[in-house]
Amino acid sequence: MDTLVLWDIDLTLVDYTGIGRKWYAEALAKVVGKELAHLPTFPGRTERSLAKELLKEHGEAHDDEHVERILAELEAIGLAARPALPTLGRALDGAPEILAALGSREGVVQSLVTGNLASLADCKLAAFDLARHVDLSIGGYGAISEHRHDLVEAAMAQASAKHGVTFAPKSVVVIGDTPMDVAAGRHHGTVTVGVATGRHSADQLADSGADVVLPNLADTPAVLAALLR
């Protein structure tokens, strides 16, 4: 195996703008019986980090036990919404094409580093037939830690264990739309690629230290060359 490509999901591959607020409001109401009065900032965050902040800002206990209750309810809400997901979001331009192109390359392993829970990551990608291109079993997901760099570490370790090789940092490409994605990859010395399809500009991604900044994923040959340089 030559290259491990680790994708962010939201606003990198797909756009489900607004769905996070709805799901967290429902989870909060179900678990503690309160209306949403404070919405955490989502970009680059993990579900564990978001759930902890949500509980804390609503005056609730925010230890692991209570965080797990929010995460479990969030998962239930997301899974129940699975049939409707194709109507609630969209695949971003070029996402299906670049995933398929990388999937056809010998020596390339694709997985995820995403703040989403594993089951919801599957749902969000499967809604647009994208999940089949990535190995979901070796991803780094948002229940693991509040800190995104821990997700990168988990994905690298699982990929190495599954394939019986050690993926050196410079053979790992971390791709996302926020400076937090970039920082998580840089923490482990990986190649980092910022995609300006979210709430951060190309200049902001470059300033965060991304090795490569792309305006979007629409130009498949150019994206492929940037990722496998």
How would you describe what is shown here?
The protein contains ten helices and seven strands. It has 229 residues and is α/β, with parallel strands linked by helices. The chain folds into two domains: 3-16 and 90-227, Rossmann fold; 19-84. Helix 8 (179-187) links the parallel strand 5 and strand 6 (191-195). Helix 5 crosses helix 10 (220-227). The chain is globular. It starts with a strand and ends with a helix.
Large-scale geometry: globular
Rg from C-alpha positions? Answer: 17 Å
How many discrete structural domains?
Answer: 2
- Summarize the helix and strand pattern as letters: EEHHHHEHEHHEHEHEH
What CATH architecture of the largest domain would you give?
Answer: 3-Layer(aba) Sandwich
**Count of extended strands:** 7
Whole-number mean pLDDT: 96
Number of helices: 10
CATH topology of the largest domain: Rossmann fold
Largest sheet report = 5 strands, parallel
CA-CA gap between termini: 15 Å
Uncertain residue ranges: none
Strand order of the largest sheet: 4-1-5-6-7
Question: Portion of residues in helices?
Answer: 40-55%
Strand content: 5-15%
Can you summarize this structure?
The protein has helices at 19-32, 47-57, 64-80, 85-88, 95-103, 118-126, 148-163, 179-187, 202-207, 220-227; strands at 3-7, 14-15, 90-91, 108-112, 172-176, 191-195, 212-214. It is an alpha/beta fold. The protein has a five-stranded parallel beta sheet, sandwiched between helices.
